[in-house]
Amino acid sequence: MADISRRALLKAAGVMGVAALPQAITPARPASASAQPATYLFLNSEEASFLEAAVSRLIPDDDEWPGALQAGVANYIDKQLAGAWGAGERLYRSGPWRPGTASQGYQLPFTPAELFRASIGAINKALSQAGTPFARMSAEQQDAYLARLETGDKDLGGVPSGVFFEHLWESTIEGFFSDPVYGGNRDMVAWRMIGFPGAYASYYDLIDQHGIKIDRAPTSIGEGPHGGMHMNPSIPAKLP
Amino acid sequence: MPQRLKHVDVVTIGVGLTGSLTALELAKTGLKVVGLERGAPRFTVPDFQSPAIHDELRFSIRKAMMQDNVREAVTFRNSSDESALPIRRWASFLPGTGLGGSFVHWNGQTFRFQAADFIYKTHIEQRYGKKILDPDLTIQDWGVTYGELEPHFDRFEYLLGTSGRAGNIRGTLHAGGNPFEAPRAREYPTPPMKEPYFGALFRKGAESLGYHPYPQPSSNLSQPYTNPEGLSLQQCVFCGFCERYACEHFAKASPQTVILPVLLKNPNYELRTGCQVLRINLDNTGKKATGVTYADASGREFEQPADLVLLTAFPLNNVRMLLLSGIGKPYDSKTGKGVVGRNYTYQTTGGATVFLDDSVNVNPFMASGANGTMIDDFGGDNFDHGPLGFIGGQYVGAIMTGGRPIEFHPTPPGTPKWGLKWKQAVARHYNHAVLVQQHGTSTASRLNYLDLDPTYRDAWGLPLLRMTFDFPENDVRMSQYIADKVVEIGRAMGGKTVIRGGTKRPYTSTVYQSTHNCGGAVMGEDPTTSVVNRYLQCWDVPNVFSIGASAFPQNGSYNYSGTIGALTYWAIEAIKNQYLKSPGPLVHG
């Protein structure tokens, strides 16, 4: 189902030069619940189990819109951690290492990949000793656990839990809202949810039509160059 | 030993706005000019094209166009009794790198500082007396006046093709423009951009309160334009990927669009990319530069002899290069003596998030980097500060540069920070919220400065720049006063909920605010309080000019690129008409 609607949307977005749009893209849930499970490159199975459960609570699924898990956020984070970002790209990594003030920002030697591995490893170890892994907790218990990570200063293999939570949350937002070429935001569900059209190149003919409702499928940078990305003024945009 | 290269007349350290503009004008005079750019060469085609350029993760979040922190960071602390630590990832400010510098990823907001800004100390003391100044503040005059710079502002705007509506032409006020602007000789080169809905909503709210809205001057053009160099720009299409991005449409003025195609054809000019300048070399008197030493992309070192060395890097890097080269006396915050690094200033920002009714579709993604609607009623010294007990001001405007959702997903107060209610609030409010920005003066203080870090080093083994900065209390009082006015405007726009903004202490390096870092190598008429004279010539080494916002004695209310452009032309004319005829100090201190 998801594949069919995606093809239809691609076509409608003008890749094939088609101007007509199916009415109302909105009624939601384009990302199928039966989406293929991710093939993880970085995360081991225990790490993946925690991460999938955690992002499910950070941005949950509901009747209207898929959540972070359905949108592929765990897959996005896995690919980021496996790549240059995980290895510390664009991160100044010379010591000495000292705790800083809040104004001075991140001051730990961990790369993102090291930080996630150390933190999730410590969480999984502690919870398996306590008897219930994170993924098997109830939703309420998971929320309470995440809230404790967020506000607490528990040591997770050298990472203060609040620092880990901040990285986890930032990565979840990125995976939810970034272009689907990075492995999250599957079927552009997050963009559909808020009405962000994505990577269109031109709104020249629409910007002074104040208050119009843009009622068309979003476009990913993965859908090809110029032609597919140019917003054609003849494509419907209607007053609320 | 570095390999010694053939002598040239002029070398520029950096090829961004100031480096390409100085080279353009000096190469025309017949001088041999070499531009040394640490980053990569890059051009609108093929480097800035769709679809890859519309990638929020890569450009906005991973900051692909910015100086690589792995190689060169800046250390930071709020006050001199703390230990500075490296800013390990950029957040608060974003220095660019690569051909064209930060003038590629800029937003195109193109202002002129006001007449009073250039004589700030004199003006404030005449209007209010000295008592209005907190004791730590070290504001000063620039040594150049608005009247002297006006032709250069004009020339710069016509180079860029800036789109706007004049409010004051030779002293006559014009409806629709900014009534508070300093007089200009003529209208903008192109008319204002189309006004988006968020701007129209702001205009209505601001007018209802008696303020004076006007279209933000933009160098993302409202219509096609050909500049005096014969280079053409296209009409901006409001794609919403401007700030932190390069323009794929040839619609944003940048060195790539308005300078380089002409400069790179001039046989007197040679561009060398991947070249990291390590120091300016001085002769044994210490009063004359002999050229520069740089490392190329493969790490080989070269000595490039030159008669004239132009520091045309990002302001922070201009200051660092002076310190690394031993040019000028470093500032000592304990004694207040010394000049290099003194009067580092920033920008006060803030602003409100205005949540509108669900029926109002703002469509924030239709935007350019500079198509706001704004007021200057609280800018600079446009209002009476006498009873208020602070100096300075901010412009206020609905300025949204694209609704890219990793960065922009506002939720009203009381919303949980994550979870289902957060998700539902984001879905509900994304298209029904307007950001009303505050943006204004940063007052110089004896407590804020730049020097070399004693501990941390760059990839070439040289000390990083150390920044010691917090907002002076004066600036917090100013910004918080205006924050109240912004809330009133937000309500007049129809805001059901308005989140109040305004500058707070401590300044944090962890949240984006502005890339208008300035000062540290300031201009002036007194060598004990300035690094460069009124022509941006170093007092101590007259064949070095340090050009750009590093010369601002303090920051004004506006985005600074327009004033950088005018100052650059001013310095170029002094070099061409005075210095080259008789090399030596243009002013005797």
Reading off the top of the CATH hierarchy, the class of chain B is best stated as Alpha Beta
Q: Indicate the CATH topology of chain B.
A: FAD/NAD(P)-binding domain
Order of helices and strands of chain A: HHHHHEEHHEE
Strand order of the largest sheet of chain A: 1-2
Summed up, the domain count of chain B is: 1
Hey, which two chains have the biggest interface?
Answer: A-B, 69 and 71 residues
Mean pLDDT of chain B: 97
Number of strands of chain B: 22
Rough outline of chain B: globular
Q: How far is the first residue's CA from the last residue's CA of chain A?
A: 29 Å
Please identify the structural class of chain B as seen in this structure.
Answer: alpha/beta
CA-based gyration radius of chain A: 21 Å
Please tell me what the overall shape of chain A is: globular
* Uncertain regions spanning at least 5 consecutive residues of chain A: 1-27
Q: DSSP helix count of chain B?
A: 14
Q: What would you give as the CATH superfamily of chain B? A: FAD/NAD(P)-binding domain
Terminal CA distance of chain B: 37 Å
Count the beta strands of chain A: 4
Bin the helical content of chain B: 10-25%
